[in-house]
């Protein structure tokens, strides 16, 4: 029986330990390819040895301190005194932690918090920012009070042999109070949040002044503007080819004057409807400066309607950054290029927008024309001439 | 019923001859053991190993985030073609975050946490000789181990492990050509997950039936410790929600290999038109989060239960508002099934539905708040004994507050528009799950170590471990909130291509070094854990002066837990520092007749006979006083 207990946990553990070590060794043996890496192997190993040594020194220090504490503890006890009062030490550590921690949180909030996004560049974003401020204030109050209580109580009521704890199994009044107060506060937040959310989303149900198609694929965004008719041609993914990248259906007469663009340029103070598509996997249109995000889901077209309120030029002044650009990035994991799927968004004045849109290329490129044999039915000059009307307002 | 009978039969044997009726061999004692205490240790050790592996993965991707342009030759030596020229490749970065998340959430905080403590504590705290079905319980561990091995084996696949994120949204995970990790690595992920869920179900059904059917005499539901309540409700959540994930996973397997289109429609991959039609990627998200949200409570509820127990024992005070604690656990469990949509606010789900999910989500914050306040009230006017377990439990509460409060931002659909999938989310779930739940688990390990290994862990190393980890975790995750507020998306391989993100590079370096420090602190734990198993100080039977039943079982482990009769339970588990009693604890098996001086009328609410006795006794006392 005794022998069995001896091998009981030790055997299994050492086996596990061996397994783990072996496992990491195996990992290390996967064929190394980088030639560059082999060159400075020596330097590499000394580097690693250095850190291992550093760690060992630290470990030895910890061990020595531990031994000193133990010896001190024992001598105290031998002299009939009490050993180290760890309850006291830990209580004081809690007190130090809460003071340092609140200061650290304050520092982080003011220094790193100051790096947050500039004011919202869209109409609906303002109400989101207001909600954010309200929520931040409320939660910060709760955060500070509860953390101070937690570590404060830990410090004040640190154990001692002289005292007995106060037997307090429950108190219905106070329990009701702290159920109802959070319930009320949360109800307020929910109600405001609900209406803000409805406002933001319901506005996107309406038809926008300008419809723009944003399509995500691995790993870029394609942008399509409507032409003179102000309507985008319909899509059919089966029609996708190298020249017809988005699968625009040219049976739809709205398709012929559509434009493709490199940059998402929008006029300020106009309501914009982004029609969001994905071709291969899920992506997400994320434009944080406009408080705008909507997933791009293959097979499920989505949209987001917003009104940009601050031009790029003005935002450059607000941020004090002459190179500032609004960006659209992908915010849903979509493969190895996920981290670099950006598109510049530019908010410009009405005049600049009209100027810009006339310079955009037709989606129906010459190559696509050849593919579709439509060269005769729609002369090229007619398309470019109609571009000027694309602003449609 | 039959299992009960078998066990009683076993008891008789124990008493008479102290020998098992089946022969104890090496295999059935140390490998294929059916003893819940041994299975608990198997879960714990496997869970800890998985945690160390997942932590190492996080250090690897943190190195990439902090030094995106530096070359580290040792990475090539270690990882081969996954890190050519001393830099982790973008594909392998994705694999690292995916496997890190999967292992931490499922293998460490679900199986490692529930598996260990449900196995250890349910039978011991309710007074049962073992689980309802020890054999199925054993299978549960072995399925878990197989799942772990299959998951890790994907590192040895040429194309690398799964890399679509731990949420494996299709079409990315369904189309093997969409990224290398969606090939063989994803197949292994899915196979591993199916085995894992089988393990969870076998474990969960066992925990539920044990709690419901095998409590000792006197142990009614309202006398159960909060640990058992939490583990029980966790098991219920798991049994109800994991099968939905199996359904989701099986359909995904069909889409991958049988050419079906459950989740796929209108797809053009790399310019080639795919034949899929009529499916919906959103369907998978619904199925995934129908499990996924209860899953986060599966992770946190055991930690809550363990912390409640540890806080009460070490404050030498009853847990404040025991009934409210139980009702809030029940409330959280029920509500957790109707909030999953808060993960999908911006997927294109109907905005009205988003609004509904936002309401249910913010309702769930109320029971969470109640729990927090009750923990604080438990500490108030306590006589706090700072064991390492106690510190970790306090840390758990601190993280739960910090992480829970950011949940109020994220649960608000309007705010979530801009916060979804940014580092703000990363900060949120690492505080509330990666930190709070891990701390609850560590509190449990330190507290019940003597029960598991019959020896004590070193307290001073525990203190060192606590402070380094606690401070480290805050340093790692607190700044991430602000990255999120500037709109920095998560799962980005490098911030170098974005001018606006470059000013976060120094913060990333800081976070990485904090993470490395916190990681090294875990070595103190590993050393303490292993060293104490073999050479730790021998424990006494009830080292923490605790009330619960597990400390009445002998130190030496017996198959059947108690030699002789199982103790009967007379009182709730939280009679600490009861006025009128000479000691500051009264274990659950002590009858009221032995503690006349400390009984309260409240103790006899549903026991008129006892109340009559009590009144008689107090009257007699009063009469005595009067005579004096
Ligand atoms: C050493 C401590 C840890 C560090 C430094 C760390 C760091 C990170 C970072 C930076 C990410 C985001 C990566 C990206 O966006 O590309 C992440 C993801 C994640 N971590 Fe941790 N983490 C740690 C511990 C934990 C723990 C204890 C858990 C347990 C729940 C956990 C669960 C997750 C999950 C679920 C994800 C999401 C994975 C994904 O979405 O792909 N982490 N971690
Ligand atoms: Cu993308
Ligand atoms: Cu959730």
Notes on the protein architecture:
The complex is a heterodimer of chains A (about 400) and B (about 625). Helices cover about 50% and strands about 15% of the residues of chain A. By secondary structure, chain A is α+β, with helices and mostly antiparallel strands. Chain A has three domains: about 65-160, no CATH class; about 170-200; about 210-390, Immunoglobulin-like, CATH 2.60.40.420. In chain A, the strands form two sheets. In chain A, strands 8-5-1-2-3-11 form a six-stranded mixed sheet. A five-stranded mixed sheet of chain A has the order 4-10-9-6-7. In chain A, strand 6 and strand 7 (about 290-295) form a beta hairpin. In chain A, helix 4 packs antiparallel against helix 5 (about 125-155) and helix 5 (about 125-155) packs antiparallel against helix 6. The relative contact order of chain A is 0.09. The model of chain A is unreliable at about 1-15, about 15-35 and about 380-393 (pLDDT under 50). Chain B starts with a helix and ends with a helix. The longest helix of chain B has about 35 residues, at about 90-125. Chain B is built from 17 helices and two strands. Mean pLDDT of chain B is about 90; it is low at about 1-20. Chain B has a two-stranded antiparallel sheet. Chain B is mostly helical and about 625 residues long. Chain B is globular, with a radius of gyration of 26 Å. Chains A and B meet through helix 1, helix 3, helix 4, helix 5 and helix 6 of A and helix 2, helix 3, helix 4, helix 5 and strand 1 of B. The structure holds protoporphyrin IX containing FE (HEM) and copper (II) ion (2 copies). One copper (II) ion (CU) binds near residues 293, 296, 342 and 343 of chain B. One copper (II) ion binds near residues 330 and 341 of chain A.
Question: TL;DR?
Answer:
The complex is a heterodimer of chains A (393) and B (628). Chain A has 393 residues and is α+β, with helices and mostly antiparallel strands. Chain A has 10 helices and 11 strands.
């Amino acid at each position: 029986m005794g022998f069995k207990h001896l091998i009981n946990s030790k055997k299994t553990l050492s086996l596990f330990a061996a397994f783990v070590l072996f496992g990491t060794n195996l990992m290390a043996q996967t064929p190394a390819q980088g030639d560059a890496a082999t060159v400075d192997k020596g330097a590499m190993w000394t580097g690693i040895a250095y850190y291992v040594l550093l760690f060992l020194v630290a470990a030895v220090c910890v061990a020595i301190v531990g031994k000193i504490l133990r010896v001190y503890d024992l001598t105290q006890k031998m002299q009939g005194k009490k050993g180290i009062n760890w309850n006291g030490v830990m209580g004081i550590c809690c007190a130090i932690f809460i003071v340092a921690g609140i200061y650290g949180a304050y520092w982080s909030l003011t220094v790193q918090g100051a790096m947050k996004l500039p004011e919202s560049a869209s109409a609906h974003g303002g109400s989101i920012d207001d909600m954010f401020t309200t929520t931040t204030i409320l939660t910060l109050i709760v955060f500070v009070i509860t953390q101070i209580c937690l570590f404060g109580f830990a410090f004040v009521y640190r154990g001692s042999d002289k005292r007995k704890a106060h037997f307090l199994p429950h108190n219905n009044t106070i329990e009701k109070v702290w159920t109802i107060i959070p319930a009320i506060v949360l109800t307020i937040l929910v109600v405001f949040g609900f209406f803000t959310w409805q406002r933001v989303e319901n506005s996107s149900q309406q038809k926008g002044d300008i419809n723009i198609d944003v399509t995500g694929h691995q790993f870029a965004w394609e942008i399509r503007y409507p032409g003179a008719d102000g309507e985008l041609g319909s899509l059919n993914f089966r029609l996708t080819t190298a020249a017809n990248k988005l699968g625009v259906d040219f049976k739809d007469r709205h398709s012929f004057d559509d434009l493709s663009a490199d940059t998402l340029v929008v006029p300020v103070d106009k309501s914009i409807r982004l029609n969001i598509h994905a071709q291969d996997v899920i992506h997400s249109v994320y434009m944080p400066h406009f408080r705008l995000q909507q997933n791009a889901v293959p097979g499920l077209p989505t949209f987001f309607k917003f009104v940009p309120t601050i031009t790029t030029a003005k935002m450059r002044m607000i941020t004090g950054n002459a190179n500032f650009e609004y960006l659209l990035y992908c915010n849903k994991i979509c493969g190895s290029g996920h981290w670099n799927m950006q598109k510049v968004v530019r908010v410009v004045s009405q005049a600049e927008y009209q100027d810009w849109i006339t310079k955009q290329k037709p989606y129906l490129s010459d190559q696509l024309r050849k593919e579709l044999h439509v060269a005769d039915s729609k002369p090229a000059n007619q398309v470019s001439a109609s571009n000027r009307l694309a602003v449609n307002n | 019923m039959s299992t009960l009978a078998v066990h009683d039969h076993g008891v008789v044997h124990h008493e008479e001859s102290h020998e098992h009726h089946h022969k104890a061999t090496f295999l059935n004692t140390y490998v294929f053991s059916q003893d819940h205490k041994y299975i608990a240790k198997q879960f714990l050790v496997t869970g800890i190993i998985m945690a160390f592996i997942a932590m190492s993965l996080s250090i690897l991707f943190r190195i990439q985030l902090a030094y995106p342009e530096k070359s580290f030759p040792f990475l090539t030596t270690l990882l081969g073609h996954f890190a050519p020229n001393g830099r982790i490749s973008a594909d392998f970065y994705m694999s690292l975050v995916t496997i890190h998340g999967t292992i931490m959430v499922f293998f460490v905080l679900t199986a490692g946490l529930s598996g260990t403590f449900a196995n250890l504590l349910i039978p011991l705290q309710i007074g049962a000789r073992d689980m309802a079905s020890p054999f199925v319980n054993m299978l549960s561990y072995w399925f878990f181990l197989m799942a772990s091995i299959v998951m890790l084996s994907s590192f040895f696949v040429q194309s690398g492990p799964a890399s679509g994120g731990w949420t494996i949204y299709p079409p990315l995970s369904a189309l093997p050509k969409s990224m290398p990790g969606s090939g063989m690595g994803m197949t292994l992920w899915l196979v591993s997950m199916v085995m894992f869920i089988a393990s969870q179900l076998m474990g969960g059904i066992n925990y539920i039936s044990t709690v419901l059917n095998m409590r000792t005499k006197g142990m009614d539901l309202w006398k159960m410790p909060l640990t058992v309540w939490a583990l029980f409700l966790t098991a219920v959540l798991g049994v109800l929600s994991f099968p939905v994930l199996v359904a989701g996973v099986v359909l995904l397997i069909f889409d991958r290999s049988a050419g079906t289109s459950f989740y796929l429609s209108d797809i053009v991959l790399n310019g080639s038109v795919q034949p899929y039609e009529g499916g919906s990627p959103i369907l998978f998200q619904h199925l995934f989060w129908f499990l996924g949200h209860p899953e986060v409570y599966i992770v946190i509820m055991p930690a809550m239960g363990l912390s409640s127990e540890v806080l009460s024992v070490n404050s030498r005070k009853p847990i404040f508002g025991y009934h409210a604690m139980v009702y809030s656990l029940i409330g959280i469990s029920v509500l957790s099934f109707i909030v999953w949509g808060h993960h999908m606010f911006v997927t294109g789900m109907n905005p009205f539905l988003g609004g509904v999910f936002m309401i249910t989500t913010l309702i769930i914050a109320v029971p969470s708040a109640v729990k927090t306040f009750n923990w604080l009230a438990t500490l108030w006017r306590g006589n706090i004994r700072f064991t390492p377990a106690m510190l970790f439990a306090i840390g758990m509460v601190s993280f739960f507050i910090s992480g829970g409060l950011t949940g109020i931002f994220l649960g608000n659909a309007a705010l979530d528009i801009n916060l979804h999938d940014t580092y703000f989310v990363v900060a949120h779930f690492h505080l509330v799950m990666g930190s709070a739940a891990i701390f609850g688990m560590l509190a449990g390990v330190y507290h019940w170590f003597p029960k598991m290994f019959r020896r004590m862990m070193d307290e001073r190393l525990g203190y060192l471990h606590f402070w380094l980890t606690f401070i480290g975790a805050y340093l790692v995750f607190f700044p991430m909130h602000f990255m999120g507020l500037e709109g920095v998306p998560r799962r980005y391989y490098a911030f170098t291509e974005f001018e606006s993100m470059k000013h976060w590079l120094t913060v990333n370096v800081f976070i990485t070094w904090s993470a490395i420090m916190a990681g090294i602190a875990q070595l103190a734990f590993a050393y303490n854990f292993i060293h104490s198993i073999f050479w730790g100080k021998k424990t006494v039977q009830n080292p923490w002066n605790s009330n619960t039943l597990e400390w009445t079982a002998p130190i030496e482990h017996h198959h059947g837990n108690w030699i002789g009769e199982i103790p009967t339970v007379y009182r709730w588990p939280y009679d600490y520092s009861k006025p009128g009693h000479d000691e500051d604890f009264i274990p659950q098996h002590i009858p009221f007749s032995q503690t006349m001086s400390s009984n309260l009328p409240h103790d006899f609410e549903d026991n008129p006979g006892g109340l009559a006795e009590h009144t008689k006794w107090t009257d007699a006392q009063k009469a005595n006083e009067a005579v004096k």
